[in-house]
Structures are given as C-alpha cells and as structure tokens.
Amino acid sequence: MFYREAGQFKTTYEADGQILPIRQDRIALLATLAVAVLVLPFVATPYFLSAILIPFLIFALAALGLNILTGYAGQLSLGTAAFMAVGAFASWNFVYRFPGLPILAAFALGGLCAAMVGIAFGLPSLRIRGFYLAASTLATQFFVVWCLTKIPALTGGSASGVITAQKIVILGYAFDTPQRKYVLVLLIVALMALLAKNLVRSNVGRSWMAVRDMDVAAEVIGIRLMRAKLLAFAVSSFYCGVAGALYAFAYLGTVEPEAYSLDLSFRILFMIIIGGVGSILGSFLGAAFIVLLPVGLNIVAHGLGLPTSVASNLELMVFGALIVFFLIVEPHGLARLWQIGKEKLRLWPFPH
Amino acid sequence: MNFFFEVLIGGLLSGVMYALVAIGFVLIYKASGVFNFAQGAMVFFAALTCVGFMDKFGMPLWLAIPATVVVMVLLGLCIERVVLRPLVNQPEITLFMATIGLAFFLEGLAQLLWDSQVHQLVLPIEDVPLQSVLDRFNLVVSQFDVTAAAVCGVLVLLLAVLFAKTKVGRALRAVADDHQAALAVGIPLQRIWAILWAVAGVVALVAGLLWGARNGVQFALTFIALKALPVLILGGFTSVPGAIVGGLIIGASEKLAEVYIGPLVGGGIEGWFPYVLALLFLLVRPEGLFGEKIIRRI
C-alpha cells in the first residue's frame, strides 16, 4: 500500500539510471539525512553522539572500504585496521609537519597514503588468491603496526607511542564539541558513501564484480585484471584510511598503534558479513549492528547483575554465534533482509 | 658458531610446535575444503578444558587427558552438526567466515566455563637442557622441546597410518579427492567430516598441552593459530609433510631473524617476519611448497 511504484513512469534515460529509482526510497533517504543533520545534533545527548553515532559512522566508512574490496572485487582481506592506521598516522604527520595544511586535505592525503600502502600489499593478489591471499593480508596487519611502534619518525618521536590528535579546525571554525564532530563526520561519510554507490554502478564497479565472480573469465572478456584488482585495493584502502583518520581525530582523540589491532580488522569484517557482502547499505546496517550489540548486551548483563568478565565472554560468544547464524540463515546479511522486506511491502496487504 | 646452532635448533624445535597446530588445519582443509580459522581457538579450548578438569575437579593428568579427548570429540561432532551441515554447498569463503565466528564463540565459551586467568600446566617433562648433548657438543637443547618434537613425530606417524591403512582413512582420502564422487559410492560424508573434526580436536589438545606447559594456559594460546598460518602458506594447505617442513622453516628463520636482524631494526620482528617470508615465497610458487598445483578452467 505504502510501498508501490505503480504510476512512477520514467520518460528519460536519466530518470531510468538514477541511484534510487523508486520515489519512496528517495524520500526515505532524504528524510533520514534530514533527521541526521537537522534533528539529531540538537536532540541527542553528547554521550549518544560521541559514543554511538560517531563510531557508527566511522565504522560504516571502514566497512564500506572493506566491502569494496571483499564484497565487490572478491579479495578477502584481514588487514583493514592496518590501512586505517596508515590513514590516521599519515594525517597526523601531515598536520604536524605542515602546520598550514587544511585538515580536510590532511585526511585526503592520509587516505592517499593508505591507498599506496594498499596497492603495495595488493600486489600479491595478482599471483595468489583465496585463502592464501586472506592469510597473507595478515602480513599487512602485523607489519604496519610494527612499523608504527618501532619507527620514531612516523610517530614524531613520542616515547609512549600515544600521541594526542590535533584539533579539527576548518577555516578557523573549530570542530571540538560532539555535535560539531558528528556533523563533520556525517558529511564526509555521506559524501563518500554517495561516491562509492556511484563507483560500484560504473564500469569500474562492474569490472570488479566480474573479477569477483571469476577472474580468469573476466580476463578473457578483456578486463585488465591487474588494473581492476589494484584499483580495488587502492580505493578500498583510501576509504579505510580516511575512516582511520576520522577514528583517531574525531573519536579517540589520540593516535596510537594499539587502537588498530587485528581485533578491529575482524570487527569490520563482521560488519560486512552481518550487514551484507557486496552492498553499500549493508555496510551501514552492519556497522550499526556491531556498534549497538555490545551496548545492548551490556545493558542486559547489567540488568541481570552479571559480572563484567562474564559479560565480555558472553559478548564474544554472541558475536561468534551471530556470525555463524547469519551465514547459515542469510548469507547476504541484513541488506538482503531489507530487500526481502521491501518486496513483501510492495504486495502488502495482498500477498498474491 | 655454537650460538648460531643453539638458535637454529631452538627455532626448529619451536617450529615443530607450530607444525602441530598447522596439521590440525591441514587435516580439515584437505578433506573438506574448509579453512578452519578456529583451530587456534580449539587449541585454547582443549588446553583450558584439560587444566580446568585438573584444577576444578581435582583430576590427575592421566584422567584429565582422556576426559578432554571425549570433550573434544563431542565438540567436533557438535561443530559438524550445528555449523557445517547447514553450510554444505556454500562457497568456501562463507565457510571460512563461519569458522571465524566459531573461533570467537569457542574463546568466549572456554573462558566462561573455566575463568580467564593464566593457569599453570605441569607435564611430567622438565624444561632442562639435555645433559648428553651439552657434554658432547656444548649445545643447550631443552629436553622439553625434544620430547615435544618426539610427540609430534609420533602423532604424525599415527595420522599417516590412519590415512594409509585403515578403512576410515581410505574414506577420508576419497572425500578429500572429490566429495560428490565419494557420496556417490556410498561413503557417509557427514560421518567422515565428524570424525575429521574430532581428530582435529585431539590434535588441538596435544598442541594445547605442549604449548600450555611451556607458556601457561592463557588467552595468548589463540595467537598460535596466527603463527600457524604462515606455516600453512609456506607448506601448502593440503599437505601434512608441507606443514612440518613449513613449520621447521618458519620456526628456524623467525628465531634467526629475530636474533641477527632484529637488533638492527629495533626488535620484535618475529610477529611479521614469517608472514613476509611466506608472502615472498608465494610470489614464486603460488601454491606453496607442497600444495597441489591449482589449475583453473573457465
């Protein structure tokens, strides 16, 4: 009844090729964005903004990056946190060494550095594939974190390895309260999500999907394998790098190698599994799920009066069980559930 | 020179322990094409359960080990029933991610059942230098390490006999070769998988006991799985000899690199050196040392 595209005719190619072809979707998306920009910063408490919404957006961006690589180009990676770390440290260094540099430029340059590291560690993907590649992406994880702890030039010679991130100031306007940081992160994430959505619809995105489905066949039909794979690594790492920079600057307030552990890589992998592999929307749904789950579990555990150690072990178990559950019941994740829901709504209330 | 040999032998012996974990991976990958990321968690689970039986229920070691074997076999059966059976015919990558979930679940479960403190595990083997080797060659070689290597050797022999001589072993090899063909000639695939996971659980127990006696039974045991991965990449996912040779190479090279290259670059390179070594090796030979040649057709 509410979700029916009957009567929405398309008379131009532009109308036919738009991102959201159904009017209800466009309205829903714009409404969500409007609420997120105009209502939430004024209504939500600072705790909710800085402890839930900001990490949610940042993780969604990182998940988007991993989804480009794993979901669209089919290259499984366990080194996401390493690319985030490169982005964070590079951004910090750019601001530190070039004091006049605008911070947004520093974020972008940090992302570019991550992209270059991504290309370097993506090179083996031309020779090896599948599990061998997944296991060797762990090399990125360990090597990058080791470099950041051992090479003083990268960390400005800080003894403890923990550096305070610089303040975010754009054109003399300081983004120092949770509200302002949230709005900045939201704008960056929304913009990059839009870019990603368009990228995967373009010929680049289609070549990635061809590589994912069968790379030998893709090569035969004229897709340049090397270019497609390395581009996927570069774009994915760029997204992760920017996410890492935002994670350090807008969320943690510090830049430290320990924040980008293997555990973070796994959490981001879980986000795309639960959210939906090969789906932009899925990255957001998955990130929301993984950010909210521990909070929910904590509330439940607190309500039942369980000690913290039990609660944290339960969290591990619930995480693990959920992953297996999702893979068995719906391998395409929450995004697919949403899609099924939409199809059902289209016929509602008459299912036949 | 003497020091070099000591480092080398120490590295080789610890490589044997890596190989032990890697064999668990190989067993499962070979016969079911599942890259079992949870092997490290199974090592942790097994060791913690064994220590838990001794600490909480006061069992002696000789009773705790069979009891843990029973637990691990049951666990293997459960995994087959709950995780693998519903995922039959899914892409390999899905199965791999399912085992990551399984790893998290087992880590949580182990620490929930038996608390998360560091437990001491005392095996009746002392970690002292072998006197005869010390006298003759002036080398310090730990008795414990040598025993561990011997245990590993026996285990591999047992597995080899199991694979080559028994009816179950024949079925295992048939399943490894081609699932559907094996099913077609009447081999019960699911029972074979269950047996396999049970065997992998027992291998995990052996690895867990040896590692636990050396470093204490604690959460860090799960990271041993991460050490076993470069061993696998190097040796090939489908070869038990590959796991052993890979383990020896990784163990020796990582200790030598740490001692000789480490001081030049600030130390701690043990964490990534095996990976980079394995990665460089893969660029030359993408299927690993003993892996099956990958032939791809459209």
TrEMBL record, chain A:
The chain crosses the membrane at residues 27-44, 50-69, 76-95, 101-123, 130-151, 182-200, 230-252, 264-297, 317-338. It is found in: Cell membrane. Its main location: membrane. Pfam families: BPD_transp_2 (PF02653). CDD domains: TM_PBP1_LivM_like. Keywords: Cell membrane, Membrane, Transmembrane, Transmembrane helix. It is a multi-pass membrane protein. It comes from the Bacteria. InterPro entries: ABC_transp_permease, LivM-like. This is Branched-chain amino acid ABC transporter permease. It comes from Pseudoduganella chitinolytica. The lineage of its organism: Bacteria, Pseudomonadati, Pseudomonadota, Betaproteobacteria, Burkholderiales.
UniProtKB/TrEMBL annotation, chain B:
It is found in: Cell membrane. It is a multi-pass membrane protein. The chain crosses the membrane at residues 6-27, 60-83, 95-114, 146-164, 192-211, 231-252, 264-284. InterPro entries: ABC_transp_permease, BCAA_transport_permease. It comes from the Bacteria. It holds the Pfam family BPD_transp_2. Keywords: Amino-acid transport, Cell membrane, Membrane, Transmembrane, Transmembrane helix, Transport. CDD domains: TM_PBP1_LivH_like (cd06582). Its main location: membrane. Belongs to the binding-protein-dependent transport system permease family. LivHM subfamily. PANTHER family: ABC TRANSPORTER PERMEASE PROTEIN (PTHR11795:SF451), BRANCHED-CHAIN AMINO ACID TRANSPORT SYSTEM PERMEASE PROTEIN LIVH (PTHR11795). This is Branched-chain amino acid ABC transporter permease. It comes from Pseudoduganella chitinolytica.
